Amino acid sequence: MKMHFREFKVYRDAKTLVVQTFRLTRKFSREFYYLSDQINRSALSIVLNIAEGSAKGSDKDFNRYIKNSLGSATELSAAFEIAEDLRLITKEEYDTLDAEIQEVIKQLGGFSKYLRRND
Length: 119
Description:
Layout: H1 9-25, H2 33-54, H3 59-85, H4 91-118
Helix pairs in contact: 1-2, 1-4, 2-3, 3-4
């Protein structure tokens, strides 16, 4: 069985974001484990929802998973903003990550719109 989700640019970009996220949160002190765990789960959720949704039988079902990914991406942006407020990451790290998150959000929104046209 071919895994079609790997063909999607949004999947590849989101996967890159997960790797960057995991590497960055490794630097958080144990005191902020709860935040790093939530950040990691949000980032991973984006990718996993794209993959899982791609196996669904209809565009309508797939779109529901894309919307879940969109919610996770928005959550990730907010969590990184909090991490920056707490000085766990620098402003430059936040700006770079948030730009990448916003790009993934833009792609997810476009994908959702495409799927709505086809359901």
